[in-house]
Amino acid sequence: MFVNRREVQIQWGDCDPANIVYYPRYFAMFDDSTSILFEVAGFSKQDLVRKYGLVGIPMVDTRAKFYIPSTYGDWITIETRIESIKRSSFEVKHNVYKGEALAIEGFETRVLVGRDPDNPDKLKSAPFPAEMVTKFTGS
Question: Which domain of life is it from (predicted)?
Fold first, then answer.
């Protein structure tokens, strides 16, 4: 499996009055991490649009399990991978580490979306390109 790891320092604006990260901020970090995963794998947003005719990769489901809080100034590591790929949807997992300890598990279901060829004003799910499947799954 293709995995991307990135270091993130918790900023003042990420925290609530109790000085712990306000949970929606993690979902923004997960969204960034998914975009970065595609970029690092060689599939930039521009490639998705130009080469594959996609409009985007919207999220259709998300959830997280929180184990250890983080506060202003902490460094966390976000490890992102695609866990499974179906025809057009795929599952993303984010493991967030604080030091060596697993702090959060984040989960997303996303769909590749392009213009409907029968009605360009509408969007339609698009099949996952074979080269992308190979890159993300190693098979």
Answer: Bacteria
